[in-house]
Amino acid sequence: MSQKNNLISKEQVLHVAKLAKLSLSDTEVELFSEQLSHILGYANELRDLDLSNYPPTSHPIELENIFREDVVIESISNKKVIDNAPQSSNGQFLVPPILND
Amino acid sequence: MSEFLYNAVDIIENIKNQKVTSKQIVSKYFDNIENKNKELNSFIALNKDLALSKANEIDERIQKGKPVGKLAGLPIGIKDNICTEDFETTCGSKILKNWHPPYNATVIKRLTNEDAIIVGKTNLDEFAMGSSTEHSAFGPTKNPLDLTKVPGGSSGGSACAVKADLVPIALGSDTGGSIRQPASFCGIVGMKPTYGLVSRFGLIAFASSLDQIGPFANTVKDCATILDVIAGYDPADSTSLDIKRDNFSDFLDRDLKGMKIGLIKEFNEYLDPEVSQNLNLAADLFANNGAAVSEISLPHIKYSLSTYYLIAPAEASSNLARFDGVRYGLRVAGKNVDEMMINTRTQGFGPEVKRRIMLGTYALSSGYYDAYYGTSQKLRTALISDFKKAYENVDVIITPTTPTGAFKFGAKLEDPLQMYLSDIFTIPSNLAGHPAISIPFGKDDENMPLGIQILSNALDDSKVIQVASILEKLRDENVT
Amino acid sequence: MTIQNNSTDDSEYSEYEPTIGLEVHCELKTATKLWCGCKNSFGEQPNTLICPVCLGLPGSLPVLNKKAVEYAIRIGLALNCTVQPSIFHRKNYFYPDMPKDFQISQYDIPINTDGYVLLTDGSKVGIVRAHIEEDTGKSTHFSSSGRIHESTATLIDYNRAGIPLVEIVSAPDITSSEMAKSYVNELRNIIVATGATDGKMEEGSLRVDANVSVKKKDQIELGTRCEIKNLNSLRSLGKAIDYEIDRQIQLLNSQKKVIQQTRHFNEDLNQTVTLRTKEEAEDYRYFPEPDLVSLNPTGEWINEIKLNMPKLLIDRRQSVIELIKDSKEMSQLIGTVNTLVDQQLDTLFIETVGFGSDPTLTLKRLTNEAANSIDAAKKLNSKELAYLINLETSGKVSSTQSKAILSNLLENTSETVDSIISRLNIQSFGDKEIEQLLDNLILEKQDEFKRFVDGDDKVIQFFIGQVMKLTKGQANGKSVTQILLKKRNG
Ligand SMILES: [Zn+2]
After folding, report:
1. Closest alpha carbon within chain B to A97
2. What is the pLDDT of residues C455-478, one digit of tens each?
3. Count of beta carbons in the 10 Å neighbourhood of residue C112
4. How far, in Å, is the centroid of ligand 1 from the Cα of B103?
5. What domains are there in chain B, each with its CATH number?
6. Which value does ipTM take for this structure?
């Protein structure tokens, strides 16, 4: 395989996949390394801009202090929720064991 | 059958005046669905019995002289990323196949409170990520005007359904153009309202700070009628706007007196000759009918696409984390929980969704946040400030909706960036949170529809509707 | 600081000093969860307090509970923090008990910053921040051995998911396990007094993570730290810190490096074990939560919260100290002031002193005699109590009599002091009665009295004993002394 000089290396692709809980085939790693490099290369045009006068925007329409009152609203039934669960046991969600590495 | 197929506003009028029953209307549309949907793949979930029983119930109320809602008996299609208790909601993804939401989205409640009838769920690019509806686990939707071409996306199913007369109205969602671009490709009206005007509660998030629900319709009048019903404050959505808003239907038959219309200088370099010509034709019509048309400059608008492709995937990577096989949807077994999550996500998501999750995860990851996500948020501020200055001089801005007409299946699948470029004119309104509409106007050299997009400032949705309704009229009077 | 270890010489320890910072998570006592209207309650049937929002169902959106913000501000004010405009972030990591696979928390712009806690010994621990975040669900691991590592499946209950928490992060000002315990105890007292949280460690409504490092005393920069997660009692906190300090010193002494780690305290083994090392640490990809807007409490609202807040512990203590500050026993009394306030008897104390009773004596009676029946003590009538203390101070009843009356009063707080005195047939031995008795005694015991007149003060005890015998302990010893001295001098 030819070693391309991609902006995002295959190692980085694998690291990101790990963070995103995705498993990639060798072909996908190669492809993503190329495609993500291409897209982010395009986005690198932003880096040359001087945007120091602009604060970041997280919301297009700025609002503040939106609250709800502390009033109980009836929860939905256990059945309605558990019916959608891939696996359950006595009203609880069942998953394979959690390992600590 | 054509005697029954009116515009939505006429359908409602005729049902209320008992010239036709809701049952007849719903049946006729289902006839169309049964004839065409297999080929078009517009609807991915339908319930005829449920729709007919609701139609019957509304007809009975009308016959007994009881009050009915503003949308009495009107069939509507819903993009399948909006939660419905009566239908599975899948986002066009394998990972959500068979998921029954235990609740209705706020827009669904608003529609059914006015006696609209939800007939089914429409196809989309998986999790609304795409511009062609080719990225659906249920297969692609076709353009009813040319079956070899895409209907646009991501709300391709909804656009197709309205154009093919499967329903008179459909809802879509628009994150970077997902309503306006397919509306343009299919030759119908599609509108993205001001961010916060329509509640997002129950809309399965793609990019939370950009997503907005909006209508597809055959006419601007229908579009305004639906927007009047779905718009409004919702305490369940913290970003919903608690404001006194206009009644949009009041802005339909006005004139252009004193209206100032802008053309974006920076977009000129992206315009193909035929698209440019089409835009100029629209501009001339406006100018000849009382509007002042001028060129304006938005210095940062050319960076919109880059900005969008950092913000949207970043938010998406986080929004889509919850699809982990634990609580609902697909689960692919694994010997421990970590492996189960990886297997589920790897097999459950399609390639475009994975690509965007990867892109977004990278943009947010340690060491890159400032360069990518941080910078894009600043650019967003710069763009909003550009618009603010522009709207000191003009009321609305017009652009082509898309750089080209509908393209062939597979044409852009290999090159994601080319696909992304088809949203270049629609994305700025999402970044700014502004309203925008696409009106069918003109044709490309393959006789596929083109669209004109009308933008305005935040909360000036009524201006957008006013100018759109005028353009619609001028088009019908002047353009063949 | 005490380190129980036989293998290492104490002198080796004295070269090192530990640096400890604590992160305390406390659940807020709101009626509902942080983002939805589900009930905030402990111990209900699994997955019955859930809705689309707290279960993170696709399409659901959070809306901030106003009361949770009010409680967070109360905590901030009580910890002397600056309350500032803030925003929420998403902390992204996958964990099955976290419904959205991200936690909504506050990151670089928290609601409360820069406060402090004063410990009872006068030392000060800085508070870096106290921010709002959501709790996770609860996992139960199934296995034959009961160990996470060997479990065969996990059950998840999301009732706790979305319950509001305030995380209080201390500065690394703590230098021993004792100080850490004292800090947590004091912190708990303060935040419980605000009414924002119940601070029950045993129910998990208050949980502590400890960051521990050690360094040589002459070294300026801090050593590599380890974080011990989820300590759920003061005892575990102390033991875990001691173990960790010891472990790190031993590593350094044998020329090994401390590796930055997250560790878990094993209660059975009394030791900390590795959970994960820094290399494996998550990249949380924090970014501003787009579904929530910024939180910018107005000065008006903060003031209103301040005014409606239950009086703060520190202020309550100060009010008591004001009343006893002239006492000669002040230094010994400081500790009892804390007990008084902890037992919620400070209001009674202040009222009683308001009726003219001696503050020192009132404090002693309330923290010693009344301490065994606090519930009854809280019901005491301050006027009656003041009357009783005044009887004692003026010598109308002896201290023994006074204690007996108080103990009866505590058994039935609606009875009056006078009725107890007459019921128990307690005689008031005032100065006149005592002088009468003494005059008779002096006639009887002339030799002893002569020795006293000649200057032998030890004989005073003899006369007190005799008077007590005659009065069955109901006389006041001090009065006897004073009358005798008067007789000798006069
Ligand atoms: Zn809930």
Report:
1. B336
2. 888 888 888 888 888 887 777 788
3. 28
4. 13
5. 1-302+378-480 (3.90.1300.10), 306-370 (no CATH)
6. 0.97
